Amino acid sequence: MNSIWRFLGLCSLLFLAACGGTLEPRNKNVVKLDPENDRVAWAVSAQQKEGTTWEVSFHAEIDDGWSVYSTQSYGDMGPWPSSFPFDSLAHANVAEGTDEVSDHTVDGHDPVFDMKVKKFKQNVDFKRLVDLAASEIPFSGTIEYMTCNDEMCLPPATVFWQCNADSGTFKLSTTPFDPSAFKVVGCSDGVYKLAGVDLDNPVVPGGKIHEKNSSLWMLFLLGFVGGLLALLTPCVFPMIPLTVSFFTKGSEDRARGLKNALIYGGFILLIYLLFSIPFHVLGSVNEEIFNEISTNPWLNIFFFVIFIVFAISFFGYFEITLPSSWVNRMDQNASKSGGMLGIFFMALTLALVSFSCTGPILGSLLAGALTADGGAWQLTAGMGGFGLALALPFALFAMFPQWLNSLPRSGSWLNTVKVVLGFVELALAIKFFSNADLVMNWGLMKRELFIGLWILVGIGLALYLFGVIRFPHDSPLKKLAPLRLGLGIVTVLFVAYLVPGMTNGAYRNLKLLSGFPPPLFYSYYHQQSECPPGLECHHDLEDGIAASKASGKPILVDNTGWACVNCRKMEETVWSEPEVLKLLQQNYVLVSLYVDDKRELAKEDQHIYISCRGQKKLIRTQGNRWATMQAETFGSVSQPLYVLLSPDGKLLTDPVGYTPDIEEYTGFLQRGVDAMKVLGNRAGL
Fold first, then answer.
1. Bridge partners of 14?
2. pLDDT digit string (tens) for 407-429?
């Protein structure tokens, strides 16, 4: 849960500055940055204790009815603990521990988290000791806290603090701006907003980029398939006849029962759609947030661990369940409430009770849908498909109750479905670890290792389907059902298809899986190359411009990402085609800019960028640079995005995104060649 709180805390980001020449004891009035929404006002002060040791105090004034939690950790299901880390600075040595001083301490049961916690009401001081070797040099840190009342919690907030060098006082600010540590670059400087690119007037127009709804429909379809799979799990399937019978037989008349069953199905769909609403809010705050989330290495490692746990659970070694208090509370609400409200709580109870089976499938959908291309709408589409698939049986069987007699009986086949899904979860876990490895360039999971692990997962699945291995909840297998035998044969064929991917031969490009394994160049056979096979490339725009001017060839700006599935599909299924490869080799300077590259820039190159819309952003990594340039210059945050520029930076034709049609992409490249001829004619060349 703390990972979720940290994620939600992105939308509550604050900045607090404080420092001074020589620090002196100060008492500052508390300040709320957002008086309407904040429930806690903070003040920071420092007092010299002995020699070079200073005590920094973080004073909180808390609104009536609200609380701030202690620095103690309460685990994943507990509240977000308060913390006050200092930035790593050579002149500041911070002592361990935080003292908590308050006359309004509550140490007991918390109704929101249903556990014993330590929290503070009205006011509290958190104090930390720091040894400053040079007190005239600014130092800084953060405040991280959560505030709750007896019914709800606000998302955790992160508050940055630093000194005011002019007055030596502590002050509040809403922007992560540190003039003592970072230089400031603005839109007018032309670093990220390239002056020569006019998106409305390319040399040879090729048509504007249109948002392709096909990806949304595809995610809706995938979500629907995921919902159908969830229906076939032991947590959901037995509920269908029970629930339908409750509505059709427990009502005064059939029409009323049918109406209630339809409302019940509608509420199931609504509940899953509601899950996507917070992501729409986040997307409106920061359009790049979905890219940051999907490519965050630690979040991908988190998903890797979670999916391993999901797989082990599906294999039958333990059950993943939500706290029984949650389920019991929803069940009680459903019993007490009548009419529409009672039916809603029944639908919510189903969602909670079935979590052990639907959670891993939903987790796969959540992790796969949070990309820059489509953002929250992709998640909404997937959740809508999932919820519709779960809701349909309850409505259809209520309309045609005689169909219930045709349902297969619950049995061991339900467990077989769970185990098969467990193997799928293992394969997805490998993919998430690969994402983290790619964006961090650790080199731990090259392409051949990835494929080798998938082969092992496939072999394990085949052995299970053929009855060679069993798991705890499996019944003895007397004979192979035709469906199970057929699925086993398909699995064996899939494993056979994977084997050439382990080699360096002509068939190593597994085009059907393009985008899932690491790229072809991320290989034990090609350790020095970071370019698609057969191509030379640059990873810095300035280097690419210099090469373009020297050769006279135009530039293909490849806005890509290490964890971008569609980017790999383009490289391995379109760029590898002879006519496309020839055009790229002979006519273009390729510049591949990875927007999710987490490698940090040199300290002197890190800076604050003020966008053309007035937003402030810290440029700390290579990926920050290229993601910002793509958004500012080309007006897009989706990858891949292909842009053709002349050596002097003019836009040759309209940019294109994911273009799997070879003829269409060839036409795009040819327009760039034609545009160079137009420019040559204009210049009299």
1. 159
2. 555 556 677 877 888 898 898 88
